[in-house]
Amino acid sequence: xxxxxxxxxxxxxxxxxxxxxxxxxxxxxxxxxxxxxxxxxxxxxxxxxxxxxxxxxxxxxxxxxxxxxxxxxxxxxxxxxxxxxxxxxxxxxxxxxxxxxxxxxxxxxxxxxxxxxxxxxxxxxxxxxxxxxxxxxxxxxxxxxxxxxxxxxxxxxxxxxxxxxxxxxxxxxxxxxxxxxxxxxxxxxxxxxxxxxxxxxxxxxxxxxxxxxxxxxxxxxxxxxxxxxxxxxxxxxxxxxxxxxxxxxxxxxxxxxxxxxxxxxxxxxxxxxxxxxxxxxxxxxxxxxxxxxxxxxxxxxxxxxxxxxxxx
Length: 312
Prior knowledge:
By secondary structure, the chain is an alpha+beta fold. The chain has two domains: 32-191, Jelly Rolls (Sandwich); 203-307, Arc Repressor Mutant, subunit A (Orthogonal Bundle), CATH 1.10.10. Helices cover 57% and strands 15% of the residues. The protein has helices at residues 2-36, 111-117, 123-129, 140-162, 167-191, 203-218, 225-232, 236-247, 251-269, 274-280, 286-297, 301-307, and strands spanning 38-43, 53-54, 58-65, 68-72, 75-79, 83-87, 92-98, 103-109, 133-135. The strands form two sheets. Strands 1-8-3-6-9 form a five-stranded antiparallel beta sheet. The longest helix is centred in the first third of the chain and has 35 residues, at 2-36. It starts with a helix and ends in a 5-residue tail after the last helix. 28% of the residues are buried.
């Protein structure tokens, strides 16, 4: 009995020590994100197991060991060593199960850094590579390329801890590292365009995934809920219910958020005139576009472009 109690006490002590260590790591990660605009951590992601969590920042996951089964916005995936997942801000993630040896690298990014990193990639491409698993290297050379990117990220993360005066420099380096990773994922996704094999059977989850795909392909021309409901052959009420269940937002909120993000990218990282944006996004005129943008961000087009304000 004494031996059993000793073993049990020892096990609980170790478990508490591991949990405490993990909590401290998570706290450091969460503190650094708003302070520096980025943060990275190696974690077993225990906090996501059997608990739905909405991503507060755009995040990149890189599986180091073990396996995980999880859903992102209702779509199911198996996460294995070497795979990468991009989760934009607002994504709902749920880990259904993980192996005891599961470890992943998590990189969180502020909106400024995320939009700067993805500014050279079209919305259509981003739609195809977000919320999906990608193999981080099909050859030893490709694996080394991806590994080196994450080594660079670790070095930059250490650099900003060592000297906060280097924060702006480190942000630029992180932006370039993430851009390199996104370009690589774009490259491999173009050579392997197969849809994820695993998906949840629930029709509502499939409908939300189909809605997101339709939105990515049509948001410039169509921003009415009725359009997407008609394409999905359901009522607007049903579509809103599906969106609310999967993301906590109704369909119109998702459409507007998606449009505003792409407008922000265009304003910050292109030289397109306001009239060119009117034409590209099919708004009636500049005045309408300006009112739409200000209603959602609090800034006019010119204020946003001049001051580089990024609204979460």
